[in-house]
Structures are given as structure tokens and as C-alpha cells.
Amino acid sequence: MRFTKMQGAGNDYVYVDCFRENLPEDPAEMARQVADRHFGVGGDGMILICPSDVADARMRMFNADGSESEMCGNGIRCVAKYVYDHAICQRPTLKIQTGAGVLTLDVLVVDDLVERVRVDMGPPILEPAKIPVALPASFRGNRVVDAPLEPYFALNEPAGWAQRCELDPRMTCVSMGNPHVTIYCDDVAAVPLEVVGPVLERLAIFPKRINVHFVQVHSAGEVTMRTWERGSGITLACGTGASAVCVSGALTGRTGRKILAHLPGGNLELEWAENDHVYMTGPAVEVFSGEWAPAAAASVAR
Fold first, then answer.
1. Residue tagged active-site, from 72, 78, 165, 185
2. Is 0.70 topped by the overall pTM?
3. What is the CATH number of the domain that holds 54?
């Protein structure tokens, strides 16, 4: 099976063109195999680019653990680049179907190839039950904005980390078609993300698990963030997460509605516009193509 490796701000996936290739029989298992950075192609997961009855293409996104997610902001930019560069559809504005609905993307073309993509991520979802966040009956708010984190998460494990990064022990939760929690601190580099990320992802108050973002605010228009992605672990970038961080900053008054987000893999531009839609702009890069032999991979796994 032919595949293409692509990345957006370092968020890398293995892409399969299902316009030309057969749909994998077990995409979850294939995602686990190809995403393995030692025995597979390596990546944060696998994305299938499929025909659609309602859009120019359909994106199905699988995390490295095989779980299927609704959306991926960096992934959908790469889908748009693939659809345009490989002549599936070469309009300047594309429609891509996702598990979070049909999104509109504007492509920036340089020398006949897509270099950057602006994505209309749609309006954020703020109602706790729809994110979803299962808060106790004693919680009276209609939004999870600067809500106390400590009742659900022990801040003393590992010892001293919250003090070292000067953590604000509150959380803001937003869905961009998939669930996100934003936590602010003064030093994101000091957060032991590999330890606290998996615990936060699976807290009982997050029934569908959650993507976790620690954010350091530099000014009203600039932040640095680090991410633990649901099903994939630490990643270099998260587009839906950066969109959620933009919304969270505006809701809490820490930032304006337009920000530059610095992620380990690069920068993303975000705007929560007056029409309530979030717009994300960032790069999309094709790295290499190859052929995957599932039978050989299975023998290695055994």
C-alpha cells in the first residue's frame, strides 16, 4: 500500500490516499503499526484521505494507539495540501469532511504547491456536557472557565512540579470538535508533561479522555504551549489544541482573540473572529512517500 508522510508544525502523520488505494481492513491496527517510530514508518498516527459525498475529500484520523479522533487541525491542513498537490481537487478553497463536520480551507499556493493553509475551524463548543466534561452536581457554571483543578487532580505528584513551573491550579475546557483542557503556568518547560499528561488525559471528569495543553502567556497576542494529545502522547503541535488555547485565553482575559502560538514544532496563527469561528493558519509539508508491506510488519510484531 502506498503512503505519504506529511507534517504540519511537526505534527506528523502517515497519510493514505483512499482515492487510489483500498481502504485498510483494520485501520486502527494499521495505525498502531505504521505509527511505531521503531518498527513502522513513524508518526503521531495515520490519516486516511477518502472520497466524500458532501465535500472534496473526507479525513479519517487515527491516533498512534489506534483510537479514532474527530479532528486534527495540523492533519487537515496536510490533507488540503495533498488534495490540491495531487490533483484530487485544485480549487483555492476546499471542503474537507471530518468527524467534527465539513470544514472550509483556503490554500496558499507557491510554485504550484500548497505552502500554507488557513482553516475555518468553526465555532468552539463551551457547554460542559458537549465537550464533554462530567462535573459534579455542585458545579453551577455553564462554562468550564478557570475552574478549580485540584478537586480532580493531585498537584503534589511528582513533588514540587507545580511550584517549579508556577502553575495556576485552574482549568478551562473547550471542544473544537474534540475535547481540550488548557492550564496556565509561568514556565511550560518546567512541566513534567510525560508524567502529568497521561493522568490528566484520563481523569474521571473527562469521559472521552482529553487533550492537555500547558500554556505560558507572553503578551495579549503571544503564547507558548506544550501538548499531551489524547491517544498519541507528547506531540510537537496540535492545531485543534492551539485553537482551543486561543479561545481559552480570550475567555479568561489572559489574551486577545488573535494570537501567535509557539509550539515545539513551529508557529500557528489563531483568531477567534467576531462571527464566533476560530481561524487557524499554518504550514503543511510533504516529507516523503513509500510503500507499506503489512505482512512484513506483522511478522516483525510477532
1. 72
2. yes
3. 3.10.310.10
